[in-house]
Design a protein that fits this description.
It is a single chain. The protein is an alpha/beta fold. It has 13 helices and 10 strands. It has a 5-stranded parallel sheet, sandwiched between helices. A 5-stranded parallel sheet has the order 7-6-8-9-10, sandwiched between helices. Helix 9 packs parallel to helix 13. The longest helix has 23 residues. The two termini are 31 Å apart. The chain binds 5-amino-5-deoxy-1-O-phosphono-D-mannitol. 5-amino-5-deoxy-1-O-phosphono-D-mannitol binds next to helix 4 and helix 10. Its EC number is 2.6.1.16. It comes from Vulcanisaeta souniana JCM 11219. This is Glutamine--fructose-6-phosphate aminotransferase [isomerizing]. Catalyzes the first step in hexosamine metabolism, converting fructose-6P into glucosamine-6P using glutamine as a nitrogen source. One of its GO terms (molecular function) is transaminase activity.
Amino acid sequence: SKEGYPHFMLKEIHEQPLAINSTLAGIEEGAFNKVVNAILDSRKILIIGAGTSYHAGLVGDYLLTSMLGLDTHTLISSEYRKYLNAVNDGDTVIAISQSGETIDTLVAVRAFKERGAKIIAISNVIDSAIPRESNYVLYTRAGPEIGVAATKTFTTQLTVLTILALKIGVATGKLTTNEYRSAMDMIGKIPGLLQNVITKTEGKVKALSEHMSKKQSAYYLGRGIGVPLSMEGALKLKEIAYIHAEAYPAGESKHGPIALVEENYPVVFSILDDDNADAMLGNVMEMKARDAYIIGLVPDKYVGKFRELLNVTLEMPSIDYRVAPVIYIVPMQLLAYYTAVARGYDPDKPRNLAKTVTVE
Ligand code: M6R
């Protein structure tokens, strides 16, 4: 049941602290250890998924590549053919699918398996098709997700991927035991932080959605791990509010997309507490110079630096960039939700979409 919420999507957004807690409580050390060993034995890691699961994969890729220096490639499941020739015996493929039934991902799993790759599934549905055909499984424990838009399954996928990256880090010596422990402590704090962000931003986001509901198009910009985060924010708006939304790395603006920006064009910036914050300031200024309508998700310690330039400031906690996507996506989910409602659409049942795509 919707437990008093008007839609499943809103209920599921609010359930995220709980979903992450359950996922953390359900971590099976044995299963993780096997996966870590499989990865240590392989030359290369491929990550596959569709839609939101692909975006989770890109976040995981960012951690494996930039934090650990592993040879990682992430692809949309339906594009698996590009890599068929590049995969060898013992390479690992991480297949991400909340339903475990997405045909594109299942087909790719079968093809890579035939090539000799070991398959690690990350799924929210026990014994679904993809976990059944995989060598190893890590489960998210988000509980059933009814809304077509993936919300709590995304943040729990990110939780599992971050823990996996940390465990690989400590096993390879890239992270010290102390670094590993303090990062794990930080993950334990996510549910509380996320709850605070919901409480602090929901009213403001709802007010913003009235404005957003009249727009035809929007940009979502970030750098680093903020790029896949922005891609996920844009997908949410597109999928349920039917507003064209595009995400790209903020540094690309002047290479083309800024041509479209005119007065009041909405741009959502995800500014993280990382090495990119200064460059992001420059990117916000270049949009300001075109009188764009700028929405910024800003870590509290940078609010003073950015506020003047922003039309709407959504204050985020100043947290390690590695866990920022889990927290930052929540106001963007809420923005998509309230914008869909303001436009008179049912966010639980977007047109043309099914919860699980089982035909190629
Ligand atoms: O069940 P899966 O995670 O394999 O689903 C993949 C996509 O179809 C899914 O994430 C889709 O993009 C969502 N509806 C987006 O909100």
